[in-house]
From TrEMBL:
PANTHER family named in the record: BIFUNCTIONAL UDP-N-ACETYLGLUCOSAMINE 2-EPIMERASE_N-ACETYLMANNOSAMINE KINASE (PTHR18964:SF149), ROK (REPRESSOR, ORF, KINASE) FAMILY (PTHR18964)
Domain of life: Bacteria
Pfam families reported in the protein's UniProt record: ROK
Family to which the UniProt record says this protein belongs: Belongs to the ROK (NagC/XylR) family.
Cited InterPro entries: ATPase_NBD (IPR043129), ROK (IPR000600)
Name of the protein described by the UniProt record: ROK family protein
Coiled-coil region: none
Gene3D superfamilies: 3.30.420.40
Length: 288
């Protein structure tokens, strides 16, 4: 049997932990609620340590952990994570102190990109790949020759840019086009419900959906013009709509990109385990 590793994803609402082997086969999985706000990071660090202890079963598996927001992997610092209430938290050091050993540390979206590229929707993709989860928020991770573009932790925050024209001027991209923003504007429990209403011909849902597509297309077109990914993997709740999302989004990108190459759009395959699986990849790489 190949080496087993542990990957942990600290989300805004849930801490997800997995044990996988070198081929990405899931062996064990546990989840715990994220207790936040936690401005010192100590409560979440305790939760991660407890989860790792249960998953490890005394075998001493290598551990990787990823967190949301602006993350500086080099320094091991969670620079900013509004959902958990973190600002400048040396989270890697907190974890190493609790676990008594090394921890591979990273960013949740970049880790998700690694997992989708190795074991998911982009496993046979060439060139530059972008992973764009569209859930509570929107961010992008770019893999260039298989390695994440980091830029001090600031790369890929496309959901934070301000909309400059149209009915949503002044709002951030993720406020409008995220799964949460789309559901909120349609007065629906989730984005999948909005998509079902779109497919059923509901005019109010169709307008909300079209606004989300247009705003998302603007953000993706800018990213495409700058870094020219050959493939964009769409994840998160909005991507569960499948072609209800990708068909109009392809048309919107064509209208914006002109002579530029439009990336192939794929929907993610690894679901909400992607970041935890990516954390496991970081753990594997830390032992090489």
């Amino acid at each position: 049997m190949s080496m087993e590793v542990i990957g942990v994803d600290v989300g805004g609402t849930t801490v997800k932990g997995v044990v996988v082997d070198g081929d990405g086969r899931l062996i064990r999985e546990l989840r715990r609620p994220t207790l936040s706000p936690d401005p010192a990071g100590t409560v979440v660090a305790d939760t991660v340590a407890e989860l790792v202890g249960v998953l490890d079963e005394g075998s001493g598996c290598p551990v990787g952990c990823v967190v949301p927001g602006i993350v500086d992997e080099t320094r091991g610092v969670a620079v900013l994570s509004a959902n958990i209430g973190w600002s400048g938290i040396p989270f890697a050091d907190l974890l190493r102190a609790r676990l008594g050993g090394p921890v591979a540390f990273g960013h949740d979206v970049r880790a998700g990109a690694l997992a989708e590229a190795r074991w998911g929707a982009a496993r046979n993709a060439s060139g530059t790949v972008a992973f764009v989860p569209i859930g509570t928020g929107i961010a992008a991770a770019l893999l260039v020759d298989g390695r994440p573009l980091v830029s001090g932790g600031w790369a890929g925050e496309i959901g934070q840019t301000l909309i400059r024209t149209g009915p949503h001027t002044g709002r951030r991209v993720e406020e409008v086009a995220s799964a949460a923003g789309t559901a909120r504007r349609a007065d629906a429990p989730d984005a999948r419900t909005v998509a079902a209403r779109v497919d059923a011909g509901d005019p109010q849902a169709q307008q909300v959906w079209q606004d989300s597509v247009e705003v998302l297309a603007d953000a993706l077109a800018g990213m495409t013009a700058a870094v020219a990914p050959e493939t964009i993997v769409l994840g998160g709740g909005l991507a569960l709509a499948g072609r209800t999302l990708t068909d109009p989004l392809e048309r919107a990108l064509d209208a914006r990109l002109g002579l530029l190459r439009r990336p192939a759009l794929r929907t993610a395959e690894l679901g909400d385990r992607a970041a935890a699986l990516g954390a496991a990849i970081l753990a594997m790489e830390s032992t090489e």
